[in-house]
Amino acid sequence: MSYNTSFGLPENIVAALCYPVGWLSGLFFLLLERKNKFVRFHAMQSVLLFMPLALFLFLVSWIPWIGWAIADSVGMPGLLLIVIPAYMAFRGSKFKIPIIGKIAYNFAYGE
Q: How much is the average pLDDT of 59-81?
């Protein structure tokens, strides 16, 4: 059963769209989607996952000589952090990333 969102789209599509642009897309859907808990869960999980990662990559890239190499070696595998949760959200799963998934779940569902 597919539930609609404030955007008029099925919830699994909107939840999957919380991940492709990192924390920005998560924040966008977190602010605009008020009624659908499934979308709010994935939006919060996206923000909690990608904001610290983006901050880490930004700070590490300023290290002279080796900063860019470290940032690239962390950032490129980090693309899997976009693909896997987006796919699981599209399938309709409440896929919880360790540690932050529980925080996001408590935020969205209030348990």
A: 84
